[in-house]
Amino acid sequence: ESSGGEQRLGVTQKNEVKLFGGSSRGAEVLFAVQADRPGPIMSGTPVYLKSVGLSRTIDVEGEAVRTRTQDRGTLQRIVVEKLPPTSEVPAACPSIDLKGSEKAWLLRRGVQHALADKQQMAKFLSGHRPHCRELLKEYSKLWEAEWRQGWSSVLSAADAAEDSTGSPA
Predict the structure, then answer these.
(1) End-to-end alpha-carbon separation of the chain, Å?
(2) What is the distance between the alpha carbons of residues 51 and 56, in angstroms, rounded to a whole number?
(3) Superkingdom, according to UniProt (predicted)?
């Protein structure tokens, strides 16, 4: 709110996202909320905001918020969360040197939770910076270990289904 008046989020014809005065009621201030799965939208659920007027999805790149495409990717994925009060946020820990396996774990979680763009990470890891090769190797080992663990649980579930019925699932 500004000066006590209601404002609405909207999109200009130039694909800029901005606040409009409360009297705006047109398609420029209407959005469709889309999700990857049906059901209630909970804190932490990724959603996409599609402008009704322009049929484009809001994307966030750095500090820029725009509507450039109809894509539904990393830049367009928005997570609805309630921020905790500042008093509940712990102080940052001091800087420490991380081992390659710890860095790989952080990158893997960043990709899983859409905090890191997969394509940008791949570009970074394929670069010629110091330690990129080691980090890529650690990341690959971690990914494979997680994949094998997930795959073994799928096989175990299939075996259990076969055992209980006497025939393949």
Answers:
(1) 58
(2) 5
(3) Eukaryota
pLDDT in tens, 76-128: 888 887 778 888 888 888 888 889 899 988 888 888 776 777 778 888 888 88
- Tell me how far apart the alpha carbons of residues 120 and 122 are, in angstroms, rounded to a whole number: 5
Question: Which residue has tokens 């859409």?
Answer: 114
Domain 7-79: give its CATH architecture: Trefoil (2.80)
Q: Looking at this protein, which amino acid is placed at residue 125? A: L
| Nearest of 26, 42, 46, 43 to residue 34 by alpha carbon | 46
- Residue listed under structure tokens 């899983």: 112
- Could you give the residue range(s) of every CATH 2.80.10.50 domain in the chain? 7-79
To which H or E segment does residue 162 belong?
A: helix 132-165
